[in-house]
Every structure is written in C-alpha cells, then in structure tokens.
Amino acid sequence: MQENSWVPLFPEQASTFAWQVDVLYFYMLAVSTVVGVGIVLAIIFFFVKYREKEKYATGAEIHGSIGLETTWSIIPFIFAMTVFVGGAYVFYNQTRPPADTTEIYVVGKQWMWKFQHGSGQREINELHIPVGRNIKLTMTTEDVLHDVYIPAFRTKMDVIPGRYTTLWFNATKPGRYHLYCAEYCGLNHSGMGGWIYVMEQRDFDNWLSGNVSGQTPVQAGQDLFQNKLGCASCHEGGASQRGAKLEGIYGTDIKLTNGQTVKADDEYIRNSILNPSGQIVEGFQPIMPTFKGQVTEEQLVSLVAYIKSLSGNANQTNTGSTTSTSGSATTNNANTTGTIPPRADRGDSNSQGSNPNAPPIRSEPTNRRER
Ligand code: CUA
Q: What residues line ligand 1, using a CB cutoff of 6 Å?
C-alpha cells in the first residue's frame, strides 16, 4: 500500500493536508530549479560573450541601473513571500486540531511506540484508525526525545520527556502506512517504527470490538485516583476536602495564589501532579505531596483522562460501537468504586503489539490490499 503516487519516490498522499505540503514543496522545487538553471545558463552565456578578445582591454564603467536593481529585488521578494504565506497556511492547519477529534494517547520509549485508544485498546508499534476522522495524538515519552513521523500523512512531531505534544491528522485513504521515529534516540532508533492501519469505519469498529481488553484510560485513571494513589482523600467532596475541587475544572481559567491565571489543560494537570507546589490554586495551602517518580507516563495519561472526564470531556471515542466509555466510567464514579474491572496486563508483554519487522501473522482488515 506504500506504492508511489503521481511522482516516483514519493509516498502516497493519504491525509487531508498531504497535498498542501506537496504543492508547497513542488513550488519551491520549481522556483529553485528555474533560478538555478537560469544562473548556470547566464554564467555560460557571459563566459562566451565576454571572453578575452584583446589583451589588456579595460572594462567600461557602469554606474548602476535602477530598473535592473528593482527587478532583481522584487522578483525574489515575491518568491520568498509566497513560500512564507504557503508555509504559514500549512503550519496553521497542522498545528490547530479541529474541535471534534478522536483522541489517542502515545507514549514513546526506547525503542517502541505505545498507543492507547479512548476505549482502552492498547497497541504497540501499530496504530489502527478509521478513515475520514480527525485523529489527535497526545504524546509523551518515558525516556528520551523521539519523533512521530508518518510520511504518507506529511506530518511529524517531536515527542518530549516531561511534556505533552500533540499531532492531528485526517486520513483520506484506507491502507497501511509507515510509521517512523524521526529523532535519533539510541542504538535501535532505526528499528523504532511500525505501521498505521487506516480502515473503513465499519472495519475499524469490528477491529475495536474484537480486541477490547482492560480498562479505558478514564477507568484506569479513576482507579489510580480513588484507590491506588489516594488522590480522592483530599480532592473528593465532603468534610475531608482539602484540595481543589476537580469537577468541571478542565479547560477553565484557574487563579493561582501568585496572582497569575492559567488554563487547566492536560499540561497543567500533569504539572500539578508532578510539581504541586509550582502552581497553587488560590485559596489553597501548598500541602499536596509530589507524585514525581511514583507514577509512570502512562498512569499520568490515565489520570489526565480521568480528570478531564470529570468535566465531561472524556467521550472522545465516539465511533458508535464504543459509546459506553465515558458514560459507564462516570456512573461508576457516582455509585461505587468496587465495580472497576481488574487492572489489565499492561506493558511489553501485551500480545497486541508486534515487531514491525516480524512477518505479518495477524488478521487484517478485509479492505487492505496486499503490497
Ligand atoms: Cu525513538 Cu528515534
């Protein structure tokens, strides 16, 4: 499925902004070619025209030409500005995800990619997504810098320790596309990759329902919040409430004790767990202990998802077949904590992942063409 498009050597155009990147790229290639060839031809022409015809000839004095100088300033200016405007347009498109995205969490580690869907489905080095939907990856890493790179989608983004970065795309063609790590990250960097499987919605739903296991990020986060880490002892309502109330905070502006105002986004929640005294909410004491070193990046992702769900932001996997996700999680919260299913086996032994270099033995969606 990785066959070439209309230009040999180029990966397929398989996302909504692939053509924009290509148009810009070929425009720059054309400008460079015209200018480069023009310069070489001019050199050859002058080389012949002004070759030495008489010994010790003196060159004529030239005192400038307004017309000529204006022309060779304005034409490059137009080229430069069109590249700038085109580049800004593509950049703007790629860095501002639309409102209705399906969120997928990504954790990079030496040397594999771990993905988790909103329904709880986990994958390693493979990512299955439906065609024609806005997909947003929220990404971080357990160790060093990595970089998600999907050439067919014409997009890439660094994955940074201690931070969330995001990447969004909308795949336009079912198929299988290369996924690479594009940031040198150690010995097996070149093997850190896999495949993106773009499927028709129906096939995707089948795939998802056939494989679901374990907890959703929201359920895992709720489990951590209420049982494993004991966050609820301070942050849940009632007489014992000492920490800020978390219901409904996601996406709002928070006033801090130092007078600043911050937005309660994924990054803020993450920082508040790891470095609680850094940004104290107005009206509260700096008594929360740090959880640095006690929670993994994957657990942080789950906690963030859970806290988001308290503000009604959890249902990002509205694919039809998995509608129960946020609904059941929120009900669990209201009723009892005892209904949480056992913690799923997580980590590298998870059989859903696979080595990208291994022979393909898994069942594949019916619409996929063999390469
Ligand atoms: Cu991860 Cu290179």
A: 108, 111, 146, 181, 183-185, 189, 192
For residues 36, 39, 44, 48, the Cα torsion angle rounded to the nearest 10 degrees is: 170
Nearest atom, ligand 1, residue 183 CA: 2
pLDDT digits (tens, 9 = 90+) for 12-66: 889 998 999 999 999 999 999 999 999 999 999 999 998 888 888 887 888 888 9
Q: Are 158 and 149 in contact (CB under 8 A)?
A: no
Return the ligand 1 atom nearest residue 110 CA. Answer: 1
Find all residues with CB under 8 Å of 314, minimum gap 6, and list them: 118, 218, 305, 306, 308, 325, 326, 329, 330
CA–centroid distance, residue 2 to ligand 1 (Å): 22
Q: In this structure, what DSSP letter does residue 11 have?
A: P
Residues 316 and 337: beta-carbon distance below 8 Å: no
- C-alpha 238/C-alpha 229 separation (Å) is 18
Four-CA torsion 186, 190, 192, 196, nearest 10 degrees: 150
104 DSSP β-pair partners = 117, 137
CB 353 within 8 A of CB 123: yes
What's the rounded Cα separation, in Å, for the pair 86 and 25?
Answer: 10
Taking the centre of ligand 1 as the mean of its atom positions, its distance from the CA of residue 350, in whole angstroms, is 21
**DSSP code of 229?**
S
302: CB partners within 8 A, 6+ apart = 217, 218, 220, 221, 224
**Token digits of residue 236:** 């849940």
Closest atom, ligand 1, to C-alpha of 185? 2
- 154, 170 Cβ separation under 8 angstroms: no
Residues 35 and 37: their CA atoms lie apart, in Å, by: 6
State the average pLDDT over residues 251-274: 88
